[in-house]
UniProtKB/TrEMBL annotation, chain A:
Pfam families linked to this entry: HATPase_c
UniProt entry tagged with the keyword ATP-binding: yes
Name of the protein in question: ATP-binding protein
The keyword Disulfide bond is assigned to this record: no
Organism superkingdom: Bacteria
Naturally occurring in which organism (per UniProt): Jeotgalibacillus proteolyticus
Start and end residues of each Histidine kinase/HSP90-like ATPase domain: 34-133
Higher taxonomy: Bacteria, Bacillati, Bacillota, Bacilli, Bacillales
Matches recorded under SUPFAM superfamilies: ATPase domain of HSP90 chaperone/DNA topoisomerase II/histidine kinase
GO molecular function: ATP binding
TrEMBL record, chain B:
InterPro entries given in the database record: Bact_StressResp_Reg, STAS_dom, STAS_dom_sf
Domain of life: Bacteria
Chain ranges of the STAS domain: 1-112
Database matches in Gene3D superfamilies: STAS domain
Protein name: Antagonist of RsbT
Signal peptide: none
SUPFAM superfamilies listed in its UniProt record: SpoIIaa-like (SSF52091)
Pfam families given in the database record: STAS
TrEMBL record, chain C:
Source organism: Jeotgalibacillus proteolyticus
Top-level lineage group: Bacteria
Keywords: Phosphoprotein
One Gene Ontology molecular-function label: heme binding
Pfam families for the chain: Rsbr_N (PF08678), STAS (PF01740)
Annotated protein name in UniProt: RsbR protein
Domain STAS: 151-266
UniProt xrefs under PANTHER family: RSBT ANTAGONIST PROTEIN RSBS-RELATED, RSBT CO-ANTAGONIST PROTEIN RSBRC
Phosphoprotein recorded as keyword: yes
InterPro entries: Bact_StressResp_Reg, Globin/Proto, RsbRA_N, STAS_dom, STAS_dom_sf
Length: 133, 118, 277
């Protein structure tokens, strides 16, 4: 069973909209304040990546219900330049934008499951899930 | 919307009351530095009790503004970081080791007075 | 085929059960025999045979609920699962052998019968294994909850100073819970110094150290200071040998020293009262 809500990321304000959507869904599913902060932060990082590197894309929130477990999945999809070396961006401290370089490895630490799929020239598909404890 | 910056003796007080978007954060950076320059403030307390998350961008803006203020001779104390925010920052891998922190505005001011040797 | 077997088992119930019990006893080791009392074992065996005969009587709804009750009873008796499963297999063989011995089936159809018996009893042993497994799962999840409840309280000992004693092994999930308790506690007790006591942590490896360092960083962010106390000699050795950098921390070997230090940090000290003459 999945219910999906999406935000199209075109400008900085859409990052805020994506965060708000995620926070609301997290609250609704019964996540605690710490997990809410984790989810909101992860969404903010992923949405900002889309805005900075791909220019535009979509950020969707899935409500999951699998085998009696409730969860929230963030899906960030864009058709931007893609990531040539995924292993490298998953290293701590690597950044191409002059930020803190906490981006993707940080998101992986905040969430329970993390999956990234990217081909140069074709775009990027990142999925990150948090399960209700 | 701009974040108000108040002056109390030789200190500046800032209370961030709503979720920061990128523009507001950058505007705040600019406003605070300008105000430090105008008032010759020696200390700044930034209270973020109402903020329920900080991502790497906002963390960078905050970290930058602290370093910039230091260059201009003002010490910054961040107060009221929520437990959830602290945990998220640490898990995200963001280091704010050198930043002075305090539980709340009152303790932040106390700490600043101590640091400034009053 | 059904009817032949049913009537055969019904007719020779006592013989079959006795043979079965003998064989199971032969196969079981000493320990097992002391756990399983003769009386209970016989009673259960009869109950079991009645149950599988019910299965063949095509009265399925009654059979299902009876089977569930029977499985639960077996689990409650505390018999090891290997004993029960091999007992079921033995039963198949006993019935089969008896059928041959009594010349109910010809040699050439032997395999066919054995297969039929196997298929007939398989759902039964599945149900019993399932009951065992779900009982274990339930126990594990209950223990998990119990362990969580046991996890790390933050104790406000004196004003501005709190202590968190850590006991037992720390895994990632527990570490997260500890961190949440710690930070919520620091804020609600308005602590200035927190002592994390690791006297009760058996092993401090890189992972545990990493969690403790993260906790200390988070404590710093909410505006308090963190001290690591209860560092035993062997823990000091592993920390240095593993190359873990705890230099940014204030650490002490005992909680007592840590407490004195914490009082010092909050501009206080313990004084002995002069004796009143």
């Amino acid at each position: 069973m999945e219910i999906q809500s999406c935000v199209t990321i075109l400008n900085e304000w859409d990052i805020v909209a994506a965060r708000q959507l995620g926070r609301n869904v997290a609250k609704e599913l019964g996540f605690g304040t710490v997990d809410q902060a984790r989810i909101t932060t992860a969404i903010s990082e992923l949405a900002r990546n889309i805005y900075l590197y791909a220019g535009q894309g979509q950020l969707c929130i899935d409500r999951l219900n699998e085998q009696g477990k409730t969860g929230l999945r963030i899906i960030a999809v864009d058709e931007g330049p893609g990531i040539p070396d995924i292993r490298k961006v998953m290293e701590d401290g690597f950044s191409t934008s002059g930020g803190l370089g906490a981006g993707l490895p940080g998101v992986r630490r905040l969430m329970d499951d993390f999956n990234i799929d990217s081909n140069p020239g074709e775009g990027t598909d990142i999925r990150a899930t948090k399960w209700l404890r | 919307m701009r974040i108000p910056i108040l002056k109390l003796k030789d200190c500046l007080l800032v209370s961030i009351q709503w979720e920061l978007d990128d523009q507001t954060a950058l505007q705040f950076q600019e406003d605070l530095l300008k105000k430090i320059h105008e008032t010759n403030a020696r200390g700044v307390v930034i209270d973020i009790t109402s903020i329920d998350f900080i991502d790497s961008f906002i963390a960078k803006v905050l970290g930058d503004v602290i370093n910039m203020s230091r260059l201009m001779g003002a010490k910054v104390v961040i107060t009221g970081i929520q437990p959830a925010v602290a945990i998220t920052l640490v898990e995200l891998g963001i280091r704010l080791d050198d930043v002075m922190t305090a539980l709340d505005l009152e303790k932040g001011l106390e700490k600043l007075q101590q640091e400034l040797g009053d | 085929m059904y009817n032949e077997i049913i009537s055969h088992i019904k007719n020779r119930k006592t013989e079959i059960i006795e043979e079965w019990i003998d064989r199971v006893k032969e196969a079981a080791d000493e320990r097992m025999i002391s756990v399983v009392s003769e009386q209970v074992f016989q009673g259960t065996s009869y109950e079991f045979v009645d149950l599988i005969l019910l299965n063949l009587d095509e009265n399925n709804s009654e059979y299902k609920s009876k089977l569930e009750m029977f499985s639960e009873k077996i689990v409650r008796l505390g018999w090891p699962i290997t004993f029960v499963v091999s007992g079921l297999r033995t039963f198949t063989h006993v019935v089969h052998d008896d059928l041959i011995q009594e010349k109910k089936i010809s040699k050439d159809r032997e395999g066919e019968y054995l297969e039929f018996l196997d298929n007939w009893l398989a759902p039964l042993s599945n149900e019993i294994i399932h009951t065992y497994a779900s009982t274990w799962e339930k126990t594990v999840s209950l223990q998990k909850i119990a362990l969580q409840e046991l996890s790390a309280p933050l104790i406000p000992v004196v004003e501005h100073i709190s202590i968190m004693p850590l006991v037992g092994t720390i895994d990632t999930e527990r570490a997260k819970l500890i961190m949440e308790n710690l930070l919520e506690g620091v804020v609600s007790h308005r602590a200035e110094v927190v002592l994390i006591d690791i006297t009760g942590v058996p092993v401090v490896d890189t992972m545990v150290a990493h969690h403790v360092i993260q906790a200390a960083e988070a404590v710093h962010l909410v505006g308090a200071r963190c001290m690591l106390v209860g560092i035993r000699p062997e823990i000091a050795q592993t920390i240095v040998n593993l190359g873990i950098d705890l230099n940014k921390f204030i650490t002490t070997s005992t909680l007592r020293k840590g407490m004195e230090k914490a009082l010092e940090m909050t501009n206080r000290k313990i004084v002995e009262l002069e004796e009143v003459n």
